[in-house]
Design goal:
Layout lengths: L3 E6 L3 H11 L3 E6 L3 E6 L2 E6 L23 E4 L3 H10 L10 E3 L2 E7 L5 E7 L2
Parallel strand pairs: 1-4, 5-8
Antiparallel strand pairs: 2-3, 3-4, 6-7, 7-8
């Protein structure tokens, strides 16, 4: 089965593994902490690259690869309100204070412990 991989720059790989496996339904695939881990969910592999991993090395021009930004993985959920409540109660950081609705559905953006965004999306039914 073809698989999509997304690489996120991570400050603390064990904390990221705990976040993705505890709150977002990922399963640990490879654990080479503290430098690297990969987690999987529904055919998506998320590569968590920390200090010491080849994926987070400085670029040839000296720029450092850092977490954050606005590009994000997009996870579909069936009950967005319940997910938001569950994550808020767990202390997960939400970039958007309220659910944003649009023509295709509704979304909220949460952050992993390094500040990388994850969009939770409920399609309009």
């Amino acid at each position: 089965m073809p698989r999509v991989s997304v690489r996120y720059m991570i400050d603390d790989v064990p904390a990221a593994v705990a976040f993705y496996t505890t709150y977002l339904g990922f399963t640990l695939e490879v654990d080479a902490s503290p430098a690297f881990a990969s987690v999987v969910r529904d055919g998506v592999r998320l590569l968590l690259s920390g200090e010491g991993s080849s994926g987070k090395r400085a670029l040839p021009d000296g720029r450092c690869q850092t977490p954050g930004g606005w590009n994000r993985i997009h996870l579909e959920v069936t009950d967005l309100e319940a997910e938001v409540q569950r994550l808020r109660e767990a202390g997960v950081c939400l970039r958007t204070d309220e659910i944003i609705s649009g023509p295709g559905g509704a979304q909220v953006i949460v952050e992993d412990p390094s500040g990388n965004p994850i969009e939770l999306f409920a399609p309009r039914r």
